[in-house]
Design a protein that fits this description.
Blueprint: H1 2-14, H2 29-44, H3 48-67, H4 76-87, H5 92-99, H6 109-119, H7 123-130, H8 140-154, H9 159-172, H10 177-193, H11 196-210, H12 216-230, H13 239-246, H14 251-267, H15 271-284, H16 290-303, H17 310-318, H18 327-344, H19 356-361, H20 363-369, H21 372-392
Length: 394
């Protein structure tokens, strides 16, 4: 599949001098957009070559679309394709050019102008034009893209609506990069609502369907941070449920997820979660490797404040190989060593506090240290002691 797509990209880039049986001018814009979406589905599946192919195809499409006869955009399929191209990472130059055409292109004016406003970061105009649209009424290949954008526009003030729109995006464009992006974003919105059952379901969906996506590493990092920050794994009954989610993916993905979770949990002070996740990561990590070293760091760092032998924790921290740790983990190691040293430091025995009367009797010390209020307080305490002694005597 990817080889055929790369061949098509090459033919498109070659222009009219390409093979006579595949002239680029014969490929209508909406067909080129389908090719783009197929490439993006490959990206969602983890195909790194598709990322480079997408960049090349977007450049080719911009040139072909800008050079197209204006009559081409009177075909609604091509006009909708131009909107999809714009929302899929295409250059805004095309839509600016198309919006200036007379007669207008064969697509809803608010949809076209709203798409341009969105990628130009003119959020107020994008909201005004795009939010009233019903994504379900559009062809699926465009409706899913619009629903995804709409969810991003409302997520800050209306999480419930954003989640519903992301559901629409997933259902309208299953198996595509739109579904991958919608599912990835929805997981974290649901986490904010505290709906653990829904969070579990969506997380399992993402890890099973898109665990190898080009964007899976971003998902793992945000997933671990959300769990630690929001306390999703806090409590004896919750971590086993979380473990079940993570263990639904392949071993390599599991190890990466447990490491990310352990790191985030240490940083956010969720020490029980950190130790449990580090233990799971260590069980999956090759002995002596960098991942085993990271798991050891997170477990040791989380052990400082749980009553363990601080001397033993310090030995474990000192035995870690810095060269096998990244910059962030090296900083974490330095912080853990400093905290362990402070916890293990034996405090000096404080000097006994002398009574005010003793200090006051020493003229040099009394004048410099004892205030009138202190003398009055000492006298009042002495009086109180005498009264208490008298009251207790037979």
């Amino acid at each position: 599949m990817i080889a055929r797509l790369l061949l098509l990209v090459s033919l498109l880039a070659a222009g009219p001098l390409a093979a006579a049986d595949a002239p680029s001018d014969a490929i209508p814009p909406f067909e080129m957009v389908r090719t783009l979406q197929t490439l993006q589905a490959q990206i969602a599946g983890g195909n790194a070559a598709a990322v480079a192919a997408q960049r090349e195809l977007l450049v080719v499409m911009e040139g072909k679309f800008l050079a197209a006869d204006p009559a081409v955009w009177q075909d609604a399929r091509n006009a909708r394709g131009a909107v999809t191209y714009t929302l899929s990472g295409g250059s805004p130059r095309l839509m600016r050019s198309l919006l200036a055409l007379t007669p207008p292109i064969a697509v809803d004016a608010d949809l076209a102008a709203g798409a341009l406003a969105y990628i130009d970061n003119r959020e107020d105009e994008a909201r005004k034009r795009l939010l009233p649209l019903d994504a379900r009424s559009l062809p699926m290949s465009l409706g899913g893209q619009v629903a995804l954008v709409q969810a991003g526009l409302v997520a800050r003030e209306d999480i419930g609506r954003a989640i519903r729109l992301l559901d629409d995006a997933r259902l309208l464009m299953p198996g595509t990069l739109v579904e991958e992006a919608a599912l990835r974003r929805e997981v974290f919105l649901v986490a904010q609502t505290g709906n653990l059952d829904r969070f579990e379901f969506l997380s399992r969906q993402y890890l099973r369907r898109f665990g190898t996506s080009i964007y899976a590493e971003d998902f793992r990092q945000r997933f671990a941070t959300a769990i630690a920050r929001l306390g999703i794994a806090d409590g004896d009954d919750r971590f086993p449920r979380l473990e079940a989610i993570l263990k639904s993916s392949d071993p390599e993905n599991q190890r990466a997820l447990f490491l990310q979770l352990a790191q985030a949990a240490v940083v956010h002070g969720k020490l029980g979660t950190a130790r449990a996740a580090a233990a799971d990561a260590a069980a999956l990590a090759p002995l002596g490797g960098g991942d085993a070293m990271r798991a050891g760091l997170y477990d040791a760092a989380a052990s400082i404040a749980v009553g363990n032998d601080i001397g033993e924790v310090q030995k474990r921290l000192a035995g870690l190989n810095r060269r096998q740790l990244g910059r962030r983990d090296t900083d974490l190691l330095d912080a853990a060593i400093a905290v362990a040293a402070a916890v293990g430091e034996v405090p000096a025995t404080p000097a006994p506090i002398e009574p005010v009367a003793v200090v006051a009797a020493d003229t040099k010390r009394g004048d410099a240290w004892v205030t009138g209020t202190m003398r009055t307080a000492e006298a009042d305490l002495s009086t109180a002691d005498a009264l208490l002694e008298k009251a207790n005597s037979p």
